[in-house]
Amino acid sequence: ERERERERERERERMGLQWLVLSYAVAAEAAIALLITLPSPKLLKSRLVSLVSLALQPLMFIVPFSVFQLMDIYWKNEHRLMCTSDICTAAERDRYEKSIFKSQRNMILCASACILYWCIYRICKYCKDIETLEEVEKRFKKL
């Protein structure tokens, strides 16, 4: 019994670390999205967008990582012990509701990680397209 409790505690610590990593990644994505959308001089903006574009490919790990975490949440939700009867104690009911709230929070975290990644990708693409169109416009004005 004690060994099983220790194993559960180790798994909780591991899962806590995964959610911490995902939280930091979402915070970094939000900061990057804010940086590339703020008005700034053209040269600074173009360099920042190219730097972020270079970093996008290695940062793609966040999407499969989030999907894996979502599948884990789904699996745990399907195999979670239900505590809806009168047999459950108040502590068990509280633990059940707390785990439901944690699952909902983590699902929002996973979804926001994927959405923010997509937004950063699209913003960088639009900025590059605008640069290309401006270059084409300059060439036509010279003719």
From TrEMBL:
InterPro entries: BAP29/BAP31, BAP29/BAP31_N. Residues 15-135 form the BAP29/BAP31 transmembrane domain. Pfam families: Bap31. GO terms for cellular component: endoplasmic reticulum membrane. It is a multi-pass membrane protein. The chain crosses the membrane at residues 21-39, 51-71. Its main location: endoplasmic reticulum. It is found in: Endoplasmic reticulum membrane; Membrane. The keyword Transmembrane helix applies. One of its GO terms (biological process) is protein localization to endoplasmic reticulum exit site. The keyword Disulfide bond does not apply. Keywords: Endoplasmic reticulum, ER-Golgi transport, Membrane, Protein transport, Transmembrane, Transmembrane helix, Transport. Belongs to the BCAP29/BCAP31 family. May play a role in anterograde transport of membrane proteins from the endoplasmic reticulum to the Golgi. This is Endoplasmic reticulum transmembrane protein. It comes from Opuntia streptacantha (Prickly pear cactus). The lineage of its organism: Eukaryota, Viridiplantae, Streptophyta, Embryophyta, Tracheophyta.
